[in-house]
Amino acid sequence: MKQSKISRFRTRIILFILTGILAACSDKQEEITPLQTCINHYQAESYQVASKQCQIAAEHGSSMAQWLLAHIYRYGLIGKGEDQEQAFKWYLKAAENGHVAAKREVGQSYMYETGVTQDYTKAHRWLMKAAKSHDAEAEFSVGILFFEGFGREKDVGSAINWFKRAAIKNHNMSINNLAWIFATSRNAAFNTPKKAKFWIAKLDKKLLQVPMFLDTKAAVMAAAEDFEQAIKLQNQAIAQLPADTPEEQLLEFQKHLDSYLLGKAWYE
Fold it and tell me: How far apart are CA 37 and CA 75, in angstroms?
């Protein structure tokens, strides 16, 4: 009899504990359901449902939901057109919650005046936060700030350093920029045809159907005094420019070709 009472007592305790665990799991499941639903519907391109569930999870502090909600507003995925200001608002919240890619998006938003007033100082600060987490696109953007002298003195040396950080992660625009700088710089400290050829060889070969990248490779060949190849590549670049290419870019590409036809490298 005593043994039976003890067994029943232990059974009640176990049932009580299990009930508590199940209740806790149920509560936890309820907490993550909006985020998981947000992700599932976003991936399924069911953006109307995703936006509602992302909103709930985002308001509860989920950086992933804030990031996805920002994307929905940025690209107008719910059929109401793009809303860059709302996108920036949620990118910023995600960035403040530690989302690395959101930090980069905030930096680029300040850099290119997307949904917020242009501010190169804030752009640099947020891009550096993302770059410290080894985000290649952020490293590339920091390089652009230095190369163009946006909000600071132009510093090609620093630009090269940042482009290299991104380039070793196979960031093609950074690879392209390194090849261009080493091929076309008027500064003898940077003009190094051998380095230009090294970097252009690392470019994804599929991109050599794109006019901008063909233009860079042509400049690299001219810097190496292979003008026959430079002329061939530049003609290809011009031929592949879209019909709606701005006249300014057409003229720039033609200037490069004219230089190669004269047996001269292009310098900037």
Answer: 20
Over residues 114-118, mean pLDDT: 98
**Residue at token pair 């043994």:** 3
Say how far apart CA 216 and CA 267 lie, in whole Å.
Answer: 12
Question: Domain 100-169 has what CATH class?
Answer: mainly alpha
Closest CA to 240 of 260, 220, 217, 267: 217
Q: CA 224 to CA 146: how far, in whole Å?
A: 27
Report CA dihedral (232, 243, 109, 168) to the nearest 10 degrees.
Answer: -20
pLDDT digit string, tens, across residues 3-37: 444 444 444 544 444 445 444 444 444 455 799 99
Report pLDDT digits (tens) over 215-268: 999 999 999 999 999 999 999 999 999 999 999 999 999 999 999 999 999 999
| C-alpha distance from residue 181 to each of 50, 195, 228 (Å) | 44, 10, 21
SS3 state of residue 95: helix
CA 82 → CA 45, 89, 135, 175, 200, distances in Å?
A: 16, 13, 26, 31, 36
Nearest Cα neighbor of 57 from 91, 76, 81, 33 is 33
Q: Residue 32: what pLDDT?
A: 53
Residue 90 makes CB contacts below 8 A (sequence gap 6+) with: 58, 66, 67, 69, 70, 73
